[in-house]
Write a structure and sequence with these properties.
This is ABC transporter ATP-binding protein. The protein is built from eight helices and ten strands. α3 runs parallel beside α5 and α5 runs parallel beside α6. It is globular. The longest helix is centred in the last third of the chain and has 18 residues. The structure holds adenosine-5'-diphosphate (2 copies). One adenosine-5'-diphosphate binds next to β2 and α1.
């Protein structure tokens, strides 16, 4: 099954002399239950591709689907609701609310959406990211690594169809980064989560099932079951 896809996706910025083509007729299918990494040099279009697949950016041409639903052409309100209900995000900054404890931060997006978390699922997520015993702590009382796990749990809690992670290890030391990647890997293996991760780090990409390589706005190569050596 396909979690997200694009056909002949074009995204350009500006016009005339200053027009930049960030994505140049990209065809892609993101498999459900798989961990996909997007790699490529700076400026190759990684973030733009992720933003277009996640419905965060409008497209200039082509079509994009989340699951079976085409999102190109959706009005802002519907798109906002689709992101809220079906998509999870992990960014470089964890964006935790300082006044809420860990559990409240984890369930906040669902509270806002007026949804009740599935209790068994939530327990599973918290165990998966090793946060038992830390749920009553505020972010300031948690280590950086624990804060990052709260951000991962927050993305997983709502059981999104797909999680987009933009350089999730970008601001972490290598030990915390490796821990983050193990939790992402585990959420795929144990919870069946679908993850798309933008990274420029071959070590991070080696945790994925499939690597897509972008260059100048095109997918120029891909690799299945990568190893760090092969990615390098
Ligand atoms: P990457 O994530 O691979 O570094 P991006 O997707 O951020 O690449 O950018 C792809 C290209 O599009 C780059 O040339 C970048 O400068 C350009 N770009 C990205 N966002 C914008 C924007 N908001 N306005 C103008 N140009 C942009
Ligand atoms: P990356 O690490 O993906 O290259 P950047 O720091 O280049 O990230 O860009 C971060 C965000 O800033 C992008 O997602 C894009 O929306 C915006 N951006 C990137 N390049 C430009 C640009 N040339 N002009 C305006 N906005 C840009």
């Amino acid at each position: 099954a396909v979690a997200a896809s694009a056909q002949q996706l074009v995204k350009s910025y500006g016009s005339g002399e200053t027009r930049v083509v960030a994505l140049d007729h990209v065809d892609v299918e993101i498999a459900r239950g798989a961990f996909t990494a997007i790699m490529g040099p700076s400026g190759s279009g990684k973030s733009t591709l992720m933003h277009c697949l996640a419905g965060l950016d409008s497209v200039t041409g082509g079509r994009v689907w989340v699951g079976e639903q085409e999102i190109t052409g959706l009005k802002d309100k519907k798109l906002t609701r689709l992101r809220r209900d079906r998509i999870g995000f992990i960014f470089q900054a964890f964006n935790l609310l300082p006044t809420l404890d860990a559990l409240e931060n984890i369930t906040l997006p669902m509270d806002i959406a007026g949804r009740k978390p599935d209790k068994a699922w939530l327990e599973n997520v918290i165990a998966t990211v090793n946060l038992d015993g830390r749920l009553k702590h505020r972010p300031s009382e948690l280590s950086g690594g624990q804060q990052q796990r709260v951000a991962v749990a927050r993305a997983l809690a709502a059981q999104p169809e797909i999680i987009f992670a933009d350089e999730p290890t970008g601001n972490l030391d290598s030990r915390s980064g490796a821990e983050m990647l193990r939790f992402l890997r585990r959420s795929v293996d144990q919870l069946g989560q679908t993850i798309v991760m933008v990274t420029h780090d071959p070590v991070a990409a080696a945790y994925s099932d499939r690597v897509l390589y972008l260059a100048d706005g095109r997918i120029v190569d891909e690799m299945h079951r990568p190893t760090a050596e092969a990615v390098l």
